[in-house]
Write a structure and sequence with these properties.
By secondary structure, the chain is mostly beta strands. About 10% of the residues lie in helices and about 45% in strands. An 8-stranded mixed β-sheet has the order 2-6-3-5-4-7-1-8.
């Protein structure tokens, strides 16, 4: 049996843009994606700390080391620029592996960048 588990998380990044008239998704700085073990087109859950909204979308790679975090399309209505969000990815593992799996969690600074 496969079990869905918490795979990785980008904890507390600040929304830098919200683009309503875009196809959809969330654009995130490539360096953050790599550090969290996430990749373009991967499904993620977005949790908005400021207003409690939760939504699912997919990832788009942003400019490396830009600090970019942009909600696109309808998701743009669920955030304000400056809101703090958590980006969570899940994955499926066989139950035995799921019991042992250690998720990746990164903690960017207040400018959405990795600590040096």
């Amino acid at each position: 049996m496969l079990v869905e588990v918490f795979k990785s998380k980008i904890h507390r990044v600040k929304v830098t843009q919200a683009e309503l008239h875009y196809v959809g998704s969330i654009t995130i700085d490539e360096a953050l994606l790599e550090a969290a073990g996430m990749f373009p087109n991967q499904k993620v859950q977005i949790v908005n700390i400021n207003n409690g909204e939760r939504l699912e979308t997919y990832l788009i790679k942003g400019r490396r080391n830009s600090g970019e975090v942009c909600l696109n399309g309808p998701a743009a209505r669920k955030v304000q620029v400056g809101d703090v969000i958590i980006v969570i990815a899940y994955g499926f593992l066989p139950e035995a592996e799921a019991r042992q799996y250690e998720p990746i969690v990164i903690f960017p600074d207040e400018n959405n960048r990795l600590a040096a």
